[in-house]
Amino acid sequence: MTAAELERFGVELDAVRARTVATLGQRDADYIRAIVKAVRYTGVAGRGLLFLGAFVHSLLVPAWIVGVLLLALSKILENMELGHNVMHGQYDWMRDPHLDGRTYEWDIVGTSDNWRKTHNFKHHTYTNVRGMDDDIGYGLLRIFPEQRWKPFYLAQPIVAVIFAILFEWGIAIQDLRLGRWWYGKTSNAQMLKLFRPVGRKMARQVLKDYVLFPLLAGPFFLPVLLGNVVANVLRNLWTYTIIFCGHFTAEVETFPKDSIVGESRGHWYLRQLRGSSNLTGGKLMNLMSGNLSHQIEHHFFPDVPANRYAAMAVEVRDICRRYGQHYNTGSLPQQFGQVIWRILRHSWPSRPVTRAPATQLQS
């Protein structure tokens, strides 16, 4: 695109946002409140079935399985469609203190304050800018050829699986920058100060899921404990899959730091487009992914209620087509297959690739 085309590209996308925001109202409020109820009721039902299976032996296995699935569903909905979207300020216009993006605390071991810093600010401002977006590989994985190879990356197929299972814990410690502490760039006193709020949140979550609720089952502590562990792991695996499919598919690009110097609104949209990918799958996929099946639209409009993304995507896709820009979308198996390929391919040594900065992509 030329500079003039880029400017019009940005103006058209801004207009999509403005038209949508102008129509926000009761149906959006009803939607998110319905999600709050769904999180609450599936969570209560899941925990209730875990207890039922513990006390009624004939129902132990089926009640345990259904209980785990319902509890995992509750945790997925809370993380993806409720917590993540609320913390972006998508529902601040409702003036509901329970849905305030600045104060909402979600149901994982990581603190919301750290997420608002690493995700809402760093990731969404500097999307896929190397050295500024910590979500590129999360400091553990080499996903793009532009990342310098280290012998540690040979183990990344195994590291990636462990990271997926423990995803909430990885998110929890992301902002601690443990590498700086390990190499002496952060003192023990500084690390202790940083860790205190994280440690308190970890302790609360562990106490709730792995001590309090299992203890309520008395002698059947272990089945309930195991149910909570499995529900959290299922949530972690699903969250990991959706997030990685939205950021690390084959056609997603990274950018050097100088790409954002003097970046216009149109360039910003272009960088978001080329740093994101969508998932097909319809309404169920939209719900279960927190509408991150529309990752492109989320990166364009992070503070717009995510239940609007499907409708906005029709206009966004048409705008991208008219300006000759690729709109990256595909099925979950297709996109996750590309993620797996990246993880395996870039675990092996290769020379770092240098690409043109985004400011040079218009020609």
From TrEMBL:
Transmembrane stretches, start-end: 49-73, 152-173, 210-234
The keyword 4Fe-4S belongs to this UniProt entry's keyword annotation: no
EC number, as in UniProt: 1.14.19.3
Record's keyword terms, sorted: Membrane, Oxidoreductase, Transmembrane, Transmembrane helix
Example GO molecular function: acyl-CoA 6-desaturase activity
All copies of domain Fatty acid desaturase, residue ranges: 63-329
Coiled-coil annotated spans: none
Pfam families registered for this protein in UniProt: FA_desaturase
Cross-referenced PANTHER family: ACYL-COA DELTA-9-DESATURASE, DESB, FATTY ACID DESATURASE 2
Name of the protein in question: Linoleoyl-CoA desaturase
Source organism per UniProt: Lysobacter niastensis
Lineage: Bacteria, Pseudomonadati, Pseudomonadota, Gammaproteobacteria, Lysobacterales
